Amino acid sequence: MLVLILGLLLFLGVHSVNLLAPGWRVAQIERLGILPWKGIYALLSLVGLLLIIWGYALSRYNPVVLYFPPMWTRHLASLLTLPAFILLVATYLPMSKLKVRVGHPMLLGVKFWALAHLLANGMLADLLLFGGFLVWATALYVVSRRRDRLAGRSPAAGSWAMDALAITLGVVFWAAFAMWLHVMLIGVAPFIRG
User: Fold this and answer.
1) For residue 155, what is the DSSP state?
2) What percent of the chain is predicted at pLDDT more than 90?
3) Are 120 and 68 contacting, i.e. CB atoms less than 8 angstroms apart?
4) Torsion angle of alpha carbons 86, 80, 132, 18, nearest 10°?
5) 46 is in which domain, residue-wise?
6) Sign of dihedral through CA atoms 145, 149, 152, 156?
7) Would you say 162 and 93 are in contact if contact means Cβ atoms under 8 Å apart?
8) What is the DSSP string of 34-91?
C-alpha cells in the first residue's frame, strides 16, 4: 500500500499546487520559465501515475477486503462512467454549453469516475485510490468554481453542436473502453453477466 499512497501523494500533490500554493507556482514559473516548469510538472505527474499503477497492482497480491459490493453496483458503476467520458471530452472541446455550464468538466468527470469505482469495489486499495481522487476532485472543483466567481469570470455562450459532439465522442469512447480496453488494460470486464 505504501507505493500506492506515495503515488497518490505525488500525483495529486502536483495537481494541487495551483490549489494549495498558487503564489509559489507563479514564482516558480517566473524563475524557471514556463517550459521547464511544465517539464518538471509532467515528469512528477508521470512518476506519480506510474507509482499509482504499480502500487495498485501490488495491492492485488495482498488484498484487504473492506466490504463485498452487490453485483448490481458493477452495472451502476458502468453507467456512472458514461457522464465521466462525456465530461472528459467536453473538457477539450471549445465552446460547448456543457463546458460553459459546468466550468471544470474534467474535475466533475473524475468525481463520477471515482464514485462509480467506489461503489463497485470493496478493497482497501480501491478506497485509497478512488476515494483519494474523489476527495481531491471535489475540493479542487469547489475551490476552482469559487475562484471563477471571485475573479468575475463570465463564461461565453456555448454551442449545442459542440455538446452534441462531446456526447457522441464520449459515448463512443465509453463504449470502446467498457467493451474492450478496460479488460485489456485493467483485467476486469465491466459488463459481466450476473
Assistant:
1) P
2) 69
3) no
4) 20
5) 1-62
6) positive
7) yes
8) HHHHHHHHHHHHHHHHHHHHHHHHHHTTS--B-----THHHHHHHHHHHHHHHHHHHH
Res. 193: pLDDT tops 80? no
Whether residue 8 is found in the same domain as residue 57:
yes
Q: Cα–Cα distance between 10 and 49 in angstroms, integer? A: 8
Residues 176, 172: Cα–Cα separation, whole Å:
6
Q: Return the minimum-mean-pLDDT range out of 19-23, 105-109, 167-171.
A: 19-23
133 and 191 fall within a common domain: yes
CA distances to 22, 70, 160, 177 from 49, in Å: 22, 29, 35, 19
Q: Which helix (H) or strand (E) holds 132?
A: helix 124-150
30 lies in the same domain as 86 = no
Phi and psi at 64, nearest 5°, equal -110, 110
User: Does 173 share its domain with 87?
Assistant: yes
Alpha-carbon distance 144 to 16, whole Å? 11
Domain count, the chain: 2
Looking at the fold, whether 44 and 105 belong to one and the same domain comes out as no
Residue type at position 13: G
Enter the pTM of the model. Answer: 0.88
Residues 55 and 94 in one domain: no
Q: Note the pLDDT tens digit of each residue in 10-51.
A: 999 999 998 888 899 999 999 999 999 999 999 999 999 999
